[in-house]
Design a protein that fits this description.
The complex is a heterodimer of chains A (325) and B (298). With 325 residues, chain A is of the alpha/beta class. Chain A has one domain (2-259): Metallo-beta-lactamase, Chain A. Helix content of chain A is 37%, strand content 21%. Chain A has helices spanning 2-21, 70-81, 98-101, 104-108, 122-125, 139-147, 221-234, 257-279, 284-289, 294-300, 309-324, and strands at residues 35-40, 43-47, 53-57, 62-65, 88-92, 134-138, 160-162, 166-170, 173-180, 188-193, 198-206, 246-251. A seven-stranded mixed beta sheet of chain A has the order 1-2-3-4-5-6-7. Chain A has a five-stranded mixed beta sheet with strand order 8-9-10-11-12. The radius of gyration of chain A is 20 Å and the shape is globular. Chain B is an alpha+beta fold. Chain B has a domain at 33-42 and 76-217: Calycin beta-barrel core domain (Lipocalin, Beta Barrel). Helices cover 19% and strands 25% of the residues of chain B. Chain B has helices at 2-20, 22-28, 43-46, 62-69, 75-78, 256-261, 265-268, 279-282, and strands spanning 33-38, 99-105, 112-119, 124-129, 147-153, 156-162, 167-170, 174-176, 181-189, 192-200, 209-217. In chain B, the strands form two sheets. In chain B, strands 1-2-3-4-5-6-9-10-11 form a nine-stranded mixed β-barrel. Chain B has a two-stranded antiparallel ribbon with strand order 7-8. In chain B, a hairpin with an 8-residue loop joins strand 10 (192-200) and strand 11 (209-217). The N and C termini of chain B lie far apart (77 Å). The chains are: A alpha/beta (325), B alpha+beta (298). The A-B interface holds A 35, 37, 45, 47, 52, 207-208, 229, 232, 237, 239-243, 246, 253-259, 261-262, 264-265, 268-269, 272-273, 276, 290, 292, 294-299 and B 61-67, 70, 79, 81-82, 84-86, 122-124, 137-145, 165-166, 177-179, 202-204, 226, 228, 230, 241-243, 245, 247-248.
């Protein structure tokens, strides 16, 4: 029941977010300046919105990883159209998080839906929607959404789901989507643009903020560490640990291998401390009072946005407790 | 008569501009060449490396102190991604290796637009831009070397560096954040170069940290090629720590430095409260049994 309440709250946040940003006021009128930053190869990042939006821009297609709020979409597309007139084909959602999929419904109407499997052409034959893009996510994004028992069924979140991993080949580039189970949530995906050598991590990396481990939505501290370790296996650094494969975080500046390493190290060290304290029989209140994240508070603490230090410690504690149970 | 005076004024203005233009003055201060570091300053820290838990003279905050106390030096040999990591642009000037400096000249204007430096350790290269380029966007990746711009104030080159990656203030686990900025002042006296570095780090320092290094020009110095393979050097310990660290209160080396040099423990813990003369009023007795160390102390 608590889980349903939580998810309802989660969904309420999403609806509220869409409502607030779903008005006729566009980004420019709000005084926000969007820009496209070229990361590497065919990959760009839209900056100035509420979260980073990764965009692969090629001659064949436009592919999004996460989408901005609806009022940003028009200006974003005008920036993209300065580079390519290719149709929008995919919007890949990294997690069920309002800041990362609020523009899905708007973007769905921008492009061309790819047909898949044995049902190729059926949509056309039955007069279905042939103008939308494919809104792709791990199946758990859908599951978590409907667990919320919401009553706004018309809201488009995602349209196509995968259960393990997923591959696309567009713009002469392999795009590998990996499911990271039990990290931020249980529906997280990371997206690897293989020729461009860029990985979009969603909220598995947030520069300058503690990780948001949503235990009620299936996230866990150990799953989060596993996801970052998996990312480190994909990343190849340049000389002197500079550059090479770049990673796009959910929020904050673009990073490379060492940014993932420092984030992983922080999580491991704090996890180890809290694990030890639990094994020593310390209560939750005693653990909080011992300030197990003191040395990371000035770098990642809640004053910078994201979870507060207490919320973060709580999520680590809950996650470790759940594993014991 | 009026036109002759005007011509004279124009000529004088041109000469004044010629001799006073900062960009032309910049050309007169040529740091290019090969430089060898002088280690009379802070030698124990720079060559053998600092003791664990020696934070003396560092204006650190509680977060930095706990970061240092948790540091297990095996970390840089177990975390393979650290193996080929270069120093931060500020720490590299501590000079554990020779430095080569080259001028970059605009072929059209013949103005010096940058200095390129190469430090022997990991072959780290850095550019100090003198032509006021735009700083990187907020979204841009940071680097260990940072992004440096310089301008001359008389004979002194002032360098502002931003956009660092996380690195270290001291090689004993004292971290330097990606938010720090540094201001360097380069002054040349004959064949000697003095570099004063001021580090502002809102994450780990409570006030700016200042340190200096000196170099001597050495026409025989040559740079070696750099090659590094990032392989894990030590096995994961019995605790299974993929990131070696000491749990709070379990670092066995915290007293070692103070005991070895018979120092007050609070003094080696760093922080501005231990850095000024008033500290002597509250300084406690030294710890340890060893007599004051006067030779072979390292």
């Amino acid at each position: 029941m608590y889980k349903h309440n939580f998810l309802n709250l989660y969904f309420t946040k999403l609806v509220l977010f869409c409502f607030l940003f779903g008005t006729s006021v566009n980004a420019a009128e709000m005084g926000l300046e969007l820009s496209l930053f070229h990361v590497k190869g065919q990959v760009y990042v839209l900056t100035g919105a509420d979260a980073n939006v990764t965009v692969q821009i090629g001659d064949e297609a436009i592919v999004f990883v996460d989408t901005p709020a609806p009022e940003y979409v028009e200006e974003m597309m005008s920036l993209i159209r300065e580079i390519s007139n290719a149709p929008v084909r995919y919007a890949i959602t990294t997690a069920l998080d309002p800041l990362h999929l609020a523009g899905n419904e708007t973007i769905e109407n921008l492009g061309f839906r790819g047909f898949g499997g044995r049902g190729v052409g059926v949509d056309v034959a039955i007069g279905g929607n042939t103008t939308g893009v494919t809104l792709l996510a791990h199946e758990n994004v859908l599951n978590r959404f409907y667990l919320a028992e919401n009553d706004v069924e018309s809201l488009t979140l995602t349209t196509t789901y995968f259960t393990t991993d997923f591959d696309i080949y567009l713009n002469d580039e392999g795009i590998a989507i990996y499911h990271m189970p039990n990290a931020h949530t249980d529906g997280d995906s990371i997206v690897f643009f293989r020729s461009s050598d860029v990985i979009s991590l969603g909220d598995l990396l947030v520069q300058g903020q503690f990780p948001d481990i949503d235990v009620e939505a299936g996230g866990s501290v150990n799953g989060f560490i596993d996801a970052l370790n998996y990312t480190l296996e994909l990343v190849i650094p340049g000389p002197n640990a500079e550059g090479g494969t770049y990673v796009v975080p959910g929020h904050g500046r673009i990073g490379d291998e060492i940014d993932v390493v420092e984030y992983r190290n922080m999580l491991v060290i704090i996890r180890d401390r809290i694990q030890y304290q639990i094994e020593q029989g310390m209560s939750f209140d005693q653990i909080i009072a011992s300030e197990p994240a003191l040395d990371y508070d000035t770098e990642y603490g809640g004053a910078r946005g994201g979870p507060s230090t207490t919320e973060f410690i709580t999520s680590v504690f809950q996650s470790l407790q759940e594993e014991v149970e | 008569m009026i036109s002759r005076n005007f011509s004279l004024i124009k000529s004088l203005s041109f000469l004044a501009a010629l001799f006073l233009s900062p960009s032309l003055l910049a050309q007169e201060i040529d740091f290019s060449g090969d430089w060898r570091p002088l280690y009379f300053e802070d030698l124990p820290e720079r060559i053998p490396g600092p003791h664990l838990a020696d934070y003396s003279g560092m204006p650190i905050n509680d977060a930095a102190r706990l970061r240092g106390d948790s540091y297990n030096p095996n970390r840089i040999s177990v975390v393979s991604e650290y193996i080929c990591r270069e120093h931060g642009g500020d720490y590299s000037m501590r000079g554990a290796a020779d430095m080569r400096i080259e001028r970059v000249v605009d072929p059209q204007t013949q103005q010096v637009i940058a200095f390129n430096t190469r430090i022997g350790f990991m072959g780290m290269q850095r550019t100090i831009w003198l032509n006021n380029p735009e700083r990187p966007a907020d979204i841009a990746p940071h680097t260990f070397r940072g992004f440096s711009t310089g301008s001359f104030d008389g004979n002194m080159l002032n360098i502002l560096t931003t956009d660092f990656k996380e690195s270290y203030l001291r090689r004993n686990g004292l971290a330097a954040s990606a938010e720090r900025t540094t201001t360097e002042h380069w002054v040349m006296h004959g064949d000697y170069l003095t570099v004063v570095t001021v580090i502002d780090d809102p994450v780990f320092l409570t006030e700016p940290m200042v340190r200096s290094q000196s170099w001597v020009r050495d026409v025989s110095a040559r740079q070696a090629p750099s090659s590094c393979v990032p392989l894990q050097e030590l096995p994961i310990n019995a605790l299974g720590q993929i990131v070696p660290h000491f749990l709070p209160g379990q670092n066995p080396w915290l007293l070692e430095f103070a005991e070895r040099y018979r120092l007050p423990y609070s003094g080696v813990r760093g922080g501005i409260e231990t850095m000024y003369p008033e500290y002597m009023d509250t300084m406690e007795a030294p710890v340890g049994e060893q007599e004051f160390c006067i030779e072979e102390c390292m």
